[in-house]
């Protein structure tokens, strides 16, 4: 019905023309209802009233006003969508002045918007919309900055070169020796700093290496058995 009224005003149709055009506008259950009752209507206003009684819920206007009170901006919902939905409800409910619309839109928006957008600064819906958009832009930039900071923090840092003269041989950290170390022990080579290996495995003493090599050679000789 809203769309029909808009087209009526746009093209200058008369109420009589709209009544004649109803078979083109209606379909399904509504068209059947029209065919059964069309003789009862002598004007477009008669049809409009009958249509609302037939198809709108009981106490429809009261229900709309309750929806207006309960319709609040959802977390993460853009202000433009929220305001459009709420203004549509108020227009259909009827009886709201422009000042009342501004007050309701402001009252039902998310609290964090109110920190940036003061009620006294919004003399019109357009100004309220502009201020809310400014807040959303600022909040978006703030989130992008925080995200960039988290990304930078998550990037692996290059560890300082291991120096056996400066690093603890127990935990591999600087600033103390193994005799003063209170940190958990870490498995690494205290000579070169390689992780996951003991010093005697990474840099075995020369004598041990020679004995290990001789034993291996003897084992491979045919007469070793």
From TrEMBL:
<dbReference type="InterPro" id="IPR005162">
    <property type="entry name" value="Retrotrans_gag_dom"/>
</dbReference>
<protein>
    <recommendedName>
        <fullName>CCHC-type domain-containing protein</fullName>
    </recommendedName>
</protein>
<dbReference type="Pfam" id="PF03732">
    <property type="entry name" value="Retrotrans_gag"/>
</dbReference>
<dbReference type="GO" id="GO:0008270">
    <property type="term" value="F:zinc ion binding"/>
</dbReference>
<feature type="region of interest" description="Disordered">
    <location>
        <begin position="200"/>
        <end position="225"/>
    </location>
</feature>
<dbReference type="GO" id="GO:0003676">
    <property type="term" value="F:nucleic acid binding"/>
</dbReference>
<keyword id="KW-0863">Zinc-finger</keyword>
<feature type="compositionally biased region" description="Low complexity">
    <location>
        <begin position="206"/>
        <end position="216"/>
    </location>
</feature>
<dbReference type="InterPro" id="IPR036875">
    <property type="entry name" value="Znf_CCHC_sf"/>
</dbReference>
<keyword id="KW-0479">Metal-binding</keyword>
<keyword id="KW-0862">Zinc</keyword>
<dbReference type="InterPro" id="IPR001878">
    <property type="entry name" value="Znf_CCHC"/>
</dbReference>
<feature type="domain" description="CCHC-type">
    <location>
        <begin position="168"/>
        <end position="183"/>
    </location>
</feature>
């Amino acid at each position: 019905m809203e769309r029909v009224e808009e087209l009526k005003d746009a093209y200058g149709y008369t109420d009589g023309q709209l009544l004649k055009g109803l078979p083109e506008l209606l379909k399904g259950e509504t068209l059947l209802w029209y065919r059964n009752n069309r003789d009862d209507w002598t004007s477009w206003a008669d049809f409009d009233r009958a249509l609302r009684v037939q198809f709108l819920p009981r106490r429809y206007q009261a229900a709309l006003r309750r929806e207006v009170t309960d319709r609040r901006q959802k977390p993460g919902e853009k202000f433009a969508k929220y305001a459009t939905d709420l203004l549509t409800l108020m227009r259909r409910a009827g009886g709201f002045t422009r000042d009342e619309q501004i007050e309701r839109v402001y009252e039902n928006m998310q609290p964090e918007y109110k920190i940036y957008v003061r009620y006294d600064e919004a003399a019109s819906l357009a100004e309220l919309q502009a201020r809310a958009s400014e807040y959303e832009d600022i909040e978006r930039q703030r989130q992008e900055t925080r995200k960039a900071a988290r990304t930078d923090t998550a990037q692996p840092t290059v560890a300082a070169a291991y120096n056996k003269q400066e690093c603890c041989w127990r935990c591999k950290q600087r600033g103390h020796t193994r005799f003063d170390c209170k940190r958990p022990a870490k498995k690494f080579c205290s000579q070169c700093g390689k992780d996951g290996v003991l010093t005697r495995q990474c840099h075995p003493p020369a004598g041990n290496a020679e004995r290990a090599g001789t034993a291996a050679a003897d084992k491979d000789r045919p007469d070793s058995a």
